[in-house]
Amino acid sequence: MNRTILRRLSANAHALRIPRKLFSSEAASEASSSIPACPSHVHEENRGLTKDVQQYDVAIVGGGMVGMALACSLASMPLTKQLNVAIIDSNPALQSKLLIKKEDPPDPRVSTVTPATINLFKDVGAWEYVLQHRHAFFDAMQVWDYTGLGYTRYDARDIGKEALGCVVENKVLHHALLSCLQNTELHKTIYPSRLTSMAIHRSSSSTHVDSTSTTTTLHSRGNLAKLELSDGSNLYAKLVVGSDGGKSHVRELAGFKTTGWSYPQNAIICTVEHTLENHCAWQRFLPSGPIALLPVGDNYSNIVWTMSPKEASERNSMDEDDFVKALNHALDYGYGPHPKSSLLGDGDMFSWLRGDAASSTKESFEAPPKVVKLASARMMFPLSLKHANDYASKRVALIGDAAHTIHPLAGQGVNLGFGDAFALSRVIAEGIAVGTDIGEVSLLKKYEAERKQANIMMMAVVDGFQKAYSIDFGPLNVLRAAAFNGAQYISPLKRSIISYASGEQKFPLFS
Q1: Which backbone phi and psi does 206 adopt, to 5 degrees?
Q2: What pTM was estimated for this model as a whole?
Q3: Contact by Cβ (8 Å): 239, 59
Q4: Which residues lie across from 238 on neighbouring strands?
Q5: How many Å apart are CA 173 and CA 417, to the nearest integer?
Q6: What CATH number labels 136-166+263-381+470-510?
Q7: pLDDT per residue as tens digits for the range 251-286
Q8: Residues 447-468 pLDDT 10s
Q9: Which residues pair with 60 in a beta bridge?
Q10: String of b and e for 244-262 (b: at least 16 CB within 10 Å)?
Q11: CA separation for the pair 89, 31 (Å, rounded)
Q12: Contact in structure between 204 and 362 (CB atoms under 8 Å)
């Protein structure tokens, strides 16, 4: 990531004072791609209402995984579980219970959740619902280059853990969060509608309120955000949270600017089947982009294959047999040989840097399991990096893809979004503890400062990897091989990389 983008992304904006202004648009907000699981009360009787217009503490626009994670986190803390919360999402599936059948093949839309994210799910009581459905922990990961010059194997034992992560279908994660939310006492209302306009008002003075009481009269309407919905409903909220995806309508209506670019790549995702169960995450860097093979349980794996738009279109239109052959070619001997031995010998040159040898240091290269057939339709989508210059202003905060989108090569996008959701809920609780209006920009900027730094770090690392492995050039290939072998044989470096990828510590270069 170049210096200009880093400077723009890392700058913390001064607190904004937004005068009263009305934003409107005929465009519908992007519906969540996740499929929810449980029925919810729609336009239920709420507390602290005016005669005609509902008033809420928090209005969450976007009921996908990240929006539901925020709601679950609010429901789990003593200071926030009494809040009145509105969830606005036009996805009709929000109103019906989804039956997840064990015998169905996995959906191609999956997420790799890190140990840090798993702990957050456990804290709010959602992980127990994930465990009731198909999921796949993996304790090993192998990354290698198509040139055959180097590879790295990671093992959970290197950092004293049982797993490096868990691959879960998005619909299972969403089902778990909704199931968790339904079993809380949070005062929630789901609006099966779209946000069409939003009015942000300037408060005449800094107001301190007791947000823990649902029977207390809320702010006067002039000190709230007003939301108009496509079904004609109007509601007011102290805080509007945009969790409505990469094409966020909240972000657009609130006037947040973004910085970013489109990659010259598309990704194909699908579910494939093997003859044996896969327990390892595999990633190979090819000339046109990486291909990943991730376990999803039973004999299934998920494919994320990045390539040029032209190649993606051709691969997507292949018949099944030809596509399976192309997959195995990309994962196995195609484009170059297996790394049979280290370019730099057996790693002795790194012996003085090893420290206590990691358990995976001496593990040899393994070929990934062969794909025998497709188990789902193929899906194709363009890739981009986008980052909101601000995450928060008066009465508005962005989380998840509404605030940032990232290349999928590291599988970190949804983990960043979950990190946003849980961080924002903590900041809201801190505001309530000291009697601060939860929509005050000074409070919301604390959330922004925390998450912007973490997100920029991850975005910079992933973007750097994408650029470094998109060039096929002899000297650079050797440097990449040296990097692979360094990560393989320098145990302290290997442990730091694993801990960073698992979300448990900052990357040492940025600490």
Answers
A1: -70, 125
A2: 0.81
A3: yes
A4: none
A5: 13
A6: 3.30.9.10
A7: 999 999 999 999 999 999 999 999 999 999 999 989
A8: 999 999 889 988 888 876 676 6
A9: 87, 241
A10: bbbebbbbbbbebebebee
A11: 7
A12: no
- Assigned superfamily of 3-16+33-103+175-260+387-458: FAD/NAD(P)-binding domain (3.50.50.60)
Task: For CA atoms 299, 304, 308, 309, give the dihedral sign.
Answer: positive
What tokens does 87 get? 């969830």
Place of tokens 């409505």: 244
- Tokens at residue 329, please? 């070619």
**Residue boundaries of the structural domains of the chain:** 3-16+33-103+175-260+387-458, 136-166+263-381+470-510
* Residues 158 and 99: beta-carbon distance below 8 Å: no
Residue 215, SS3? Answer: coil
| Among 334, 340, 324, residue whose Cα is nearest residue 287 | 334
Give the tokens for residue 354.
């090893």
For residues 430 and 447, give the distance between their C-alpha atoms in angstroms, rounded to a whole number. 11
Asked if 176 contacts 117 with a C-beta cutoff of 8 angstroms, the reply is no
Task: Go through the chain and tell me how many residues it has.
Answer: 511
Residues 6+ apart with CB under 8 A from 441: 15, 16, 17, 392, 393, 394
Residue that is written with structure tokens 């210059």 in the block: 389
Q: Which residues contact 143 (CB under 8 A, 6 or more apart)?
A: 151, 152, 154, 283, 284, 285, 484
- The DSSP letter of residue 36 is P
Token pair recorded at residue 105: 């093949």
Distance CA 78, CA 84 (A): 14
Whether the predicted pLDDT of 213 surpasses 70? no
The amino acid occupying position 32 is S
Q: How many CB atoms are closer than 10 A to CB 385? A: 20
Taking each continuous run of H as one helix and of E as one strand, the counts in the chain are 13, 21
